[in-house]
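#onboarding

Welcome to the new folks! Below is a worked example of what a typical request in this channel looks like: someone posts a single protein sequence, and someone else replies with the predicted structure as tokens. Don't worry about understanding the tokens yet, we'll cover that in week two.

Example request:
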Amino acid sequence: MVLQPQRSARVTSRSAFTLLEVLIVVAILVVLASVSSVYVFRYLEESRINKCRVDVKTLEKACGAYEIQYGVRPDSLLALVQPPGGKPFVEGEALTSPFGPYQYNPAGPMNGGLKVDVWAVTPTGEQIGNWPGSGITH
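Example response:
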């Protein structure tokens, strides 16, 4: 008598994902991306404001250096890039904030005339300047 080996239950193997599984994974990724983008854009706006604050202080310091060297305050921020017969105090791209060109008043009414006023205006109308109460720590 010859014994025949018993047949085991048929094992099926899968070699790919089904369309439904792929669609579920894609839907989960889309939801995660949309939720996380809200936080990313919030930090992006904060970084623009912080860059603006740093730039305003840099331009204020450059105006002070200009005044020390030439004895007068610059007529415009462009004078910091093209001073009369000297090395530039700042590069040309420093005159543009993430929200547009920086504004300048050499009389400095917001600073009581003690130093120049430099500021930028955000799309919401907020002024980020170099005077007390404008969001820049002194």
